[in-house]
Design a protein that fits this description.
With about 300 residues, the protein is mainly alpha-helical. It is globular. The relative contact order is 0.17.
Amino acid sequence: MKPSNRRQQPDDERLDTTEFGVTETLPILETAALGMVTPASRGSSVARNAAIVGAAFILSRILGLVREIVIAAQFGTSADYDAYVAAFRVPDLLFLVVMSGAFGSAFIPVFGGMLARQDSANAWRLASSILSYTLVILGVVALVTMLLANQFINWFIAPGLAPEQAELAARLTRILLLSPLLLGLGAAFKGMLEAQDQFALSAYAPVFYNIGIVVGAVVLAPTWGVYGLAAGVIAGAVMHAGIQAVGLWRGGMRLRFSLDRHVPGLATVLRLMGPRILGQAAFQVNFIVLTNFASRIGDNSVSALNYAF
């Protein structure tokens, strides 16, 4: 996301958070060595999956552009949109650092390797533990953020906003804290599906995320204002995670809450997470710093900067 929407998007990995998005693809598991797939059929599978992902990527980008046009037409550069953009910063940070850090390059290679070795029992134990730990951490951090949202906005994210704007940004932050949870689940489900050579649902999940935001801007915002846009983000995040959860459930998903520290592969995932988390944190902190500066230089500067990206 753009800062404000990518985030969490599943597209740009900015949820756009808004896109807290998530477009990297994982290699298809090597099952030919097990005698399960011929070279010809494997090549056909690669081509089919590449076509699915490519088409979904193009459609998601087009919808992302439509989303930005609709939001600009509805809010332009305004005080309310300044508050909305500022409110997205902490949820984006949580998604990219906590959830994306855990389920990006760290967890999925280990999980996929276990499935390739026919060790599905330990693969799902690992998935359950990693998902449980990250959700607990995210829940604690989200609770602290809810309690200190006003301080975060006024001291760190957008100290130049007018008092009423800062209060609006804090309220929106509390609402949008649902997005990193939902998009994070979507990112986890995406990796699990792709590790099983199922690409269609994960490829099109960002499309539904963008649809939710567009509907929020067109249908809800005229009545609810910027709260309607935030509601669209949450609805899009629910669809993003939901359609992938259905695919996993139909495929025999075996997730359960578990804080077992002695799961095979857990130490490897934790070791791989370090560099990923540092990189993602540095990336998102840049946007927080830019928002901080923009809020100090004049009315509507936060909105203008966001559109410029």
